[in-house]
């Protein structure tokens, strides 16, 4: 996957998260879940920008690991929102969970590849 395609995909994911957060009720639980999912869900696109500007391979790996952590947190939040039935659009939640899982797979693979590349460059 090209960097620009992944960046666009992460931005679209962030937009989905914003729509989900905006659809939650104005209750204590809704406000808490909304705030939390906004922080973790949007940070993946922002942290990707940071990763692209990494100062070294180790820095890149570190930043990609942060993205992975935020994706995992977002997924758990999506599961809580889905089970709580406090949202307006179930298809949006289902699509966000699917995309979240796919992004997790991409970043797990990216970390593996980056670690292999780092190991190869250290052996030269």
What is the annotated CATH architecture?
Up-down Bundle
Count of helical stretches: 4
| Separation of the first and last Cα atoms | 27 Å
What proportion of the residues is helical, as a percent range? over 70%
Structural class: mainly alpha
Order of helices and strands: HHHH
Number of individual domains: 1
Largest pleated sheet: none
Oligomerization state: single chain
Rounded to the nearest angstrom, the radius of gyration is 16 Å
The shape is: elongated
What's the mean pLDDT score?
A: 94
**How many strands?**
0
CATH level-3 fold name: de novo design (two linked rop proteins)
Query: In percent terms, what proportion of residues is strand?
Result: under 5%
Any idea what the CATH superfamily is called?
Answer: 23S rRNA-intervening sequence
Low-confidence stretches: none
The level-1 CATH class: Mainly Alpha
Give a verbal description of the structure.
With 124 residues, the protein is mainly α. It has a single domain, classed as 23S rRNA-intervening sequence (de novo design (two linked rop proteins), Up-down Bundle). 86% of the residues lie in helices and 0% in strands. It is built from four helices and no strands. It starts with a helix and ends with a helix.
């Amino acid at each position: 996957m090209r960097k620009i395609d992944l960046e666009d995909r992460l931005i679209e994911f962030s937009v989905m998260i914003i729509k989900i957060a905006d659809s939650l009720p104005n209750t204590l639980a809704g406000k808490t879940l909304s705030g939390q999912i906004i922080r973790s869900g949007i940070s993946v696109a922002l942290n990707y920008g940071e990763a692209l500007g990494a100062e070294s391979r180790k820095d890149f790996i570190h930043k990609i690991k942060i993205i992975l952590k935020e994706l995992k947190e977002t997924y758990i939040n999506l599961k809580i929102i889905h089970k709580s039935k406090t949202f307006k659009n179930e298809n949006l939640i289902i699509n966000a969970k699917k995309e979240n899982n796919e992004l997790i797979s991409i970043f797990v693979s990216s970390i593996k590849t980056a670690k292999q590349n780092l190991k190869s460059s250290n052996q030269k």
